[in-house]
Amino acid sequence: MIKKLLLLFSVVFSIGLSSEELNSGDTAWILTSTALVLFMTLPGLSLFYAGLVRSKNAISVLMQCFAIACIVSVAWVVYGYSLAFTDGNGFIGGTSAFFLTGIGRDTLAPGTTMPHSLFVIFQMTFAIITPALVVGAFAERMKFGAMCLFSLLWFTAVYIPACHMIWGGGYLADVKDFAGGLVVHLTCGVGALVIAVMLGPRKGFPVTAMPPHNRTMVVTGAAMLWVGWFGFNAGSSWAADGLAGMAMLVTHISAATGALTWMAIEWIKGGKPTIVGIATGMVAGLATITPAAGSVGPEGALLIGLMAGTICFYATQTVKGVFGIDDSLDVFPVHGVGGIIGIIMVSFLGVQGGFLGSSAGETWIPMEQFLIQMKGIAVIGIWTGIATWAILKLISSLMPLRVTEEEEYEGLDIAEHEERGYDLT
């Protein structure tokens, strides 16, 4: 009799813990992660970018990041979530959840133990930061109206299809991209490169020095990005579990290693370590670990951070110094290149029991997965480049993309917003 009661209790207990029941611990963690990811954009990325530009353009960068957060939030509710995560075809979702139809207070997100509404807003924060990252490519020279239209169209034509293809069960569902190496970092990196080429360099580049106007603001924003990234990566486990813990650990390891590596190279080459350098190396380490955070162990994170700090450093020198492309705040060499490195290394470091260890709960054959990862890089990279070019061509036929030379000289704070970030009185 006692055995029967114990068996009945175990069955009831297991049902209570099934994925069909809301789990308060998981829900609390994803609530926290959602706030952390939004914290990455507002205020983290906003301050990081605003500090890197000249003082006459700081307000314009803050305004751009803030406006993008608002634009994407509304678009995500109206159509973005539905096209990214409902059933459609291999490249785009359906229309069944337009205006979040059918998503109520008590409905659970499919396959999770959290409210569907929470899944929606967590994914919204990823959608917000991706076009906001592109701001770094056209900082100090793009008209605000053109920026708003570009961000909306780019979010629609680039981010949503990439999200659906990889995370929405679409054409690239076999790609291992834990938290956005392709969906976030490659898309924003390639988009940044295209727009930097099409807009042309800032007046005076590369002869005139354009140093950051406020390094304190830079490192403050970078620190916020570092903290917020724990929600970005560890939150992508969808649960308060061991996977989230390992993802948080390897995220921190890669960030620290990337920062130290960048600082060391800069120190050796230039004779002095800089706060901008160590902060940029940290961001490179974070971007590079993002796709691998759910499948590598601590040793793999050390290697990824080392690669991020080294390769991304030299990529920044190449883009500006060799090719003469004014990607103002190094979006492509840090995020685009970092995302590619992380996606590739998943193939070899993310194998259970494989090289340098792994935290993965699944196994795959390295070379087979490598080919899948490369296919993802090619598809997302090519589509992003083509779509970004087409969007810019369309907008340029409707309005000027770039401020005038006089407005650029005056600064976008006054020319576009009639505001200053400081009081002259």
Give descriptors for this structure.
425 residues; Ammonium transporter fold; disordered N terminus; mainly alpha
General description of the model:
This protein has a single domain (23-409), classed as Ammonium transporter fold (Orthogonal Bundle), CATH 1.10.3430.10. It contains 14 helices and no strands. It has helices at residues 2-16, 24-52, 58-85, 116-138, 144-167, 181-199, 215-234, 242-270, 275-289, 298-322, 331-349, 366-398, 405-410, 412-417. The longest helix has 33 residues, at 366-398. The protein has 425 residues and is mainly α.
Describe what is shown at a glance:
Helix content is 68%, strand content 0%.
Radius of gyration: 22 Å
Could you describe the largest sheet, including whether it forms a barrel? none
What's the number of helices? 14
Provide the structure class: mainly alpha
CATH superfamily (homologous) name: Ammonium transporter AmtB like domains
Q: How many strand segments?
A: 0
Give the SSE layout.
Layout: H1 2-16, H2 24-52, H3 58-85, H4 116-138, H5 144-167, H6 181-199, H7 215-234, H8 242-270, H9 275-289, H10 298-322, H11 331-349, H12 366-398, H13 405-410, H14 412-417
